[in-house]
Amino acid sequence: MNNPPVNIWIKGGRLIDPANGRDETADLLVTNGVIQAVGRVEAPADCRVIDADGLVVAPGLVDMHVHLREPGQEYKEDIASGSRAAAAGGVTSVAVMPNTQPVVDDLSVVGYILERARAAGLVRVFPIGAITRGLQGQRLTEMGLLQRAGCVAFSDDGRPLTDSGVMRCALEYARMFGALLIQHADDPTLSANGCMNEGVISSRLGLAGIPNAAESILVDRDLRLVALTGSRYHLAHVSTREAVRAMAQARSQHLPVSCEVTPHHFSLTDEAVLGYDTDAKMSPPLRGAMDRAALLEGLAQGIITVIATDHAPHDEESKRVEFCRAANGVVGLETLLPVSLELVRDGVLSLSHCIAAMSCNPARLLGLPLGTLGVGQAADVVLFDLEESWTVDARRLHSKSKNTCFHGRRVKGRVKQTLVAGKVVYRDGHD
Ligand SMILES: [Zn+2]
User: What is the DSSP string of 100-165?
Assistant: First the structure.
């Protein structure tokens, strides 16, 4: 890989920088990987020019919910292949969940992930540490040490933290470090036998369902514990109207809570399961139309401030089995942007709000100085064509696994270039 040129002049794009309230035609001058000037810029003589005419120039996307499967399940994805998928999707930073093998509950695993990310050399990879050792839901990890080693948040994602006493301790402990706890809210005593949303469609298909209450019961409990402890809490992949309502109420009481939604939850319903397509199987499951409407409303009203993929690669063996036995999860890094842009076309979010939900908002929650195009910031940038239509093709994904629920979907919005610290890590048509 060649060293990047000293100066890059990104010329004449529609520059959108929600953190600084910008949406205007402007140039961006990058020097040594850092944003040097924004606006009408006089280009220095010795610069590389990127013509952004007709393109949107936005902060590189920050995805705070990603599974890269390394260490332990490299046949599904590894940090290098996941980094390529991210770069192709315009994602310049990923926060990766700790349910690897071994679990990220130990400094050595944090170090390993950071080292592998450096070796891949494409996007920024931030480990999320486990809340409990081995994700067993009992003994807390050394959050302070893990945070110092590079963990940007804590979660037992994939598994809910069900024990109320442990959750209270975790919240109190995390508070000492100002750490963010991320909950996968799912009461296993309600969801254990289910494999899709409980409703008309699960009855019709004869599949065991997971009621909305499996999510909302844990959310309600967690929010009471947040009120008790005053700790920061983030709800992963919200899927039900009841949980959106509970989050709205908590936010109106100024509790330090936030939540994210995935593109599959806001764009699909459990009707996607009608053909027993295992790529429509995930946890939490795709819900009903009223829940989807509540998610859109939650985005529009600023209750849900983050869009995250829950990128969960699975090999064919794990998915090509009967529905109830199939693994949960879908890949998402390469469809995050175009599917989210449907929110803009449908009038749910402005383009600026939509970009914010995938850049400065998650960056702020994770305490990262990223997701903006302010002068002095790292030049993590995505250039995309807002109008270009294309069809999602699972076989063409950069991810090792092809389990997308958007295969065949006609989408609009195509990533043209992705830069991390001024280095081009992806260029459309050059891979
Ligand atoms: Zn989860």
Answer: SSS-S-SHHHHHHHHHHHHHH-SSEEEE-B-SBGGG-SSSBP-HHHHHHHT---EE-TTS----HH
Q: At what angle do helices 79-88 and 107-120 cross, to 10 degrees?
A: 50
- Is-contact 352 15, C-beta < 8 A? no
Per-residue pLDDT of 392-418, as tens digits, reads 999 999 999 999 999 999 999 999 999
| Catalytically active residues, by annotation | 310
CA distances from 422 to 13, 56, 150, 373 (A): 16, 17, 23, 12
Chosen CATH of 60-366 out of 3.20.20.140, 3.30.750.24, 3.40.50.720, 1.10.10.10: 3.20.20.140
On whether the pTM is more than 0.85, the answer is: yes
Strand partners, 320: none
Mean pLDDT value across the chain: 96
The 3-state DSSP class for residue 320 equals: coil
C-alpha of residue 407 to centroid of ligand 1, in Å: 22
Number of H-type helices and E-type strands within the chain = 14, 18
Q: Supply φ then ψ for residue 395, to 5 degrees.
A: -65, -20
Q: C-alpha distances in angstroms, 394 versus 112, 384, 406, 409?
A: 30, 20, 8, 10
Give residue limits of the domains in the chain: 60-366
* Distance of CA 97 from the midpoint of ligand 1 (Å): 9
CA–centroid distance, 158 to ligand 1, in Å, is: 5
| 2 has a pLDDT exceeding 70 | no
Contact 35, 42 (CB under 8 A): no
> Which residues have a Cβ under 8 Å from the Cβ of 344 and sit 6 or more positions away?
350, 351, 354
Per-residue pLDDT tens digits for 16-29 = 999 999 999 999 99
Average pLDDT over residues 261-290: 97
Give the tens place of pLDDT for each residue, 185-211.
999 999 988 999 999 999 999 999 999
How much is the pLDDT for 431? Answer: 58
Q: What's the gap in Å between 180 CA and the centre of ligand 1? A: 15
Structure tokens of 344? 């803009």
Q: What's the pLDDT score for residue 42?
A: 83
| 411 token code pair | 């989408």
